Amino acid sequence: MFVVAGDDSKTRVDIVELKEHPFFIGTQFRPEYTSQPLHPAPLFLGLILASAGSLVLSSLYMNQVTEECAIVIK
């Protein structure tokens, strides 16, 4: 398990991942509160993309989902 985010004092873990798993992430925050129909929260979009199989994302998505993000389905 890999810790990818925590608080500034390094006493609380906020996000963990399993690098060897196609999509495994655990969070302490509520990503659904930032999701909108045309602008889904990155965690929800990532889950959909991972479950769809062979999807290629632009490097822009890997940093932050924006209106100019390109998603290509193979």
Give the tags.
two-stranded antiparallel ribbon, alpha+beta, disordered C terminus, three-stranded antiparallel β-sheet, 5 strands, 74 residues, 26% strand, flat
Report a brief summary of the structure.
Residues 65-74 have low confidence and may be disordered. 22% of the residues lie in helices and 26% in strands.
Structure description:
This protein has 74 residues and is α+β, with helices and mostly antiparallel strands. It has one domain. The chain is 22% helix and 26% strand. It contains two helices and five strands; from the N terminus they run βββαβαβ. The strands form two sheets. It has a three-stranded antiparallel beta sheet, with no helix packed on it. A two-stranded antiparallel sheet has the order 4-5. A hairpin with a 7-residue loop joins strand 2 and strand 3. The chain is flat.
Strand content: 25-35%
Report the strand count.
5
> Topology as H/E string?
EEEHEHE
Biggest sheet: strands, sense, closure?
Answer: 3 strands, antiparallel
> Mean pLDDT, as a whole number?
69
The Cα radius of gyration reads: 13 Å
Portion in helices: 10-25%
Alpha-carbon distance between the two ends: 30 Å
Task: Itemize the secondary structure elements and their pairings.
Layout: E1 2-6, E2 13-17, E3 25-27, H1 42-52, E4 55-57, H2 59-63, E5 71-73
Antiparallel strand pairs: 1-2, 2-3, 4-5
